[in-house]
Amino acid sequence: MPSKKVDVAEEEEPKEKEDKGSPAPSAKSDEHMIPKSRLDEVLEQNRKLQEQLATTEKERQDQLEEQLKEQGKWKEIAEQRANDLAKLKPKAEQADAAETTLKEVLTSQIAELPEPMRNLVPADLTTQQQLAWLAKNRSLLVKSKPVDIGAGKKGGEPPENLDLTPEEIEYAQKFGVKPEEYAKFRFR
């Protein structure tokens, strides 16, 4: 049976019209009004049809189950499903273990990021997608450490090779210092 759709706003509209205190005319005054008794009747009819549909569906499921029991196929179906489940259970355990490992790797990679950059990793992605995102954007999130070339260091050991140029030997003699001592002070 086709059921009529009833707008809830139409149900409340008669209350607005009955209110004589508001001088403004209603914008829906030209629309067709449904009496409350008719609305209640349609809603009751709809509720009964829903109940009938639910009982019919339940009866159909019961009949189907009864037919399978009579034919003995339910045992075959149950055995087949049990076999399928037994085959899939180890794979599910492996998948769970792999997911746990990936989460640990993700947690350690996020911990390696500088504190202000950790919130930039999108949380709405799966673990695999987050790991892929980190792999692509790691260079943007982590400052690379420059190679230490000893710039700005004072003191330290002089190089093993203390060979002086002829000009340096001449300067050492002018200052009255031995060339070995001059070489030591040259590298400070």
Summarize the structure.
This protein is mostly helical and 188 residues long.
Keywords:
elongated; 188 residues; mainly alpha; single chain; 0% strand
Task: Explain the overall architecture.
The protein is mostly helical. The chain is built from 6 helices and no strands. Residues 5-25 have low confidence and may be disordered.
What is the percentage of strand-forming residues? under 5%
What is the helical fraction, as a range of percent? 55-70%
Tell me the span between the first and last alpha carbons. 102 Å
Category by helix and strand content: mainly alpha
- Secondary-structure element string: HHHHHH
Average pLDDT number: 77
Main sheet record: none
What is the number of E strands?
0
| Global outline | elongated
Cα gyration radius (Å):
43 Å
Q: Report the total helices.
A: 6
The poorly predicted ranges are 5-25
How would the blueprint of this fold be written?
Elements: H1 8-18, H2 36-71, H3 73-112, H4 127-141, H5 166-175, H6 179-186
Helix pairs in contact: 3-4
